[in-house]
Structures are given as structure tokens and as C-alpha cells.
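Box 3.1 A note on notation
Throughout this textbook, protein chains are presented in two layers. The first layer is the amino acid sequence; the second is a C-alpha cell string describing backbone geometry. Keep the layers aligned when reading.
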Amino acid sequence: MHGQVVHAQYGNRSQYQPLQSKLCSGSDPLSIVSVLLELYPFQTLYIADLDAIQNRSNHQAMIVAIDQKFPNLTIWLDCGKICAPYPVAKIKPVLGSEYIQNMQDYLEQSATCLRRHVLSLDFSARGVMGFADLYENAELWPDEVICMTLNRVGSEQGIDLKRISTLKLINKSSAIYAAGGVKNISDIHRLEQLGIAGVLVATALHQKNITSGEIAAIYRQ
């Protein structure tokens, strides 16, 4: 947001502040990606372009620069309503249910993304966000689905196992990814036991609550 990596907390976007990481100083996006890859050679980077999501501007030039500097990374990009395919072919668009109002809206956005999107099923403290039918109709889901608990993002309060488990039961064929609330490696082990495909982690890494050795052990398994 505003050219910097910010610490997303509880989904309260107006209150997000520049990231303060124990891994490095500053909040420059290229520097942050670099230190994360020094921590562990991750293969996928999730980016939320918060200015684009809030219809202010976008960080397209910076995101393309990240892609060029770190060509081995696959980027999952949430930039709100997708108006056109992104200029970098291997960037996978994330469609958030938060922005989807009805079936026609979802089908149009899916077609714009050439049906290669990741679906983010978004939850607030009040429950589901956006087009409610998406949450129950698994036939509408793509191969990769994020369970995004926005009210836990950046909180280190722990993952919402009940909600994640429910989505896993609704659709056993899509790969489910958890997002929001991870506090330590124990949370990731719990997700692994549930058969969850992966997890979005930021705060726990920047606070050094998950180490490179713990991450490596997960991948070895």
C-alpha cells in the first residue's frame, strides 16, 4: 500500500502501517521479498495490491519488477476486481469473494482471468463476504482455493480450524490454502494433519516465530 509493504491486521485496511520486521529494516517491497527468500527459498509469493483493491491506483510496475528480479517465484496476486489479464503470464490472479456480487459477476471475472485464477473465500468476524453461493457450491471452485479469515490476518491469534475444516469437507478435490492467524509451526502442523495444501504466512515469519529450520522440516516431510 502506497508503495510499501504494510502489516495487514484484522482486515482494517485504513489502519495498516508500514511493516516492521525482525528480519530486516524498512518496508521496501523488493527488500522484503529478498529477505523472505534468504529465510527459505519459497516458490510462491502472495501479494495483495491494497491500493488496487481500494480503487485508488495500483502497483503494477513494482509487481512486474518483483517478477523480473525473482523469476523463479510464482506470484499469486489479489488486486481486487480483475479488469484485464496481468502483463506477466505466470502471475496467477486471485479472485476474492469479497468483490463478487452474483453469479454473472463471478463468471465474467473468471473468464477475464482465462479461468486460471485462485479463488479466495473471504470471511470477516461477521461471517461470509460477498457472493454467499460460492461458499456452498464446490462445483464453482477452481483447483486452488484460499480460506481467507480476514479478521485474524496479522493477529497471531491462531488459525480458524473449524472454518477451514468445513471448506475441506465441502470440496475434497480442490487444494485448500489457509490464511489468517498463524502464530507458530504448531498451527502449520495442524493444517497438515487436516490435509490442507498450504498456508499463507507473513507476521509469524517477520516476528521470527517460525524459523527457517522449521520450514525446511515441513518441506522434507
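The chain has a mean pLDDT of 92. DSSP finds nine helices and ten strands in the chain.
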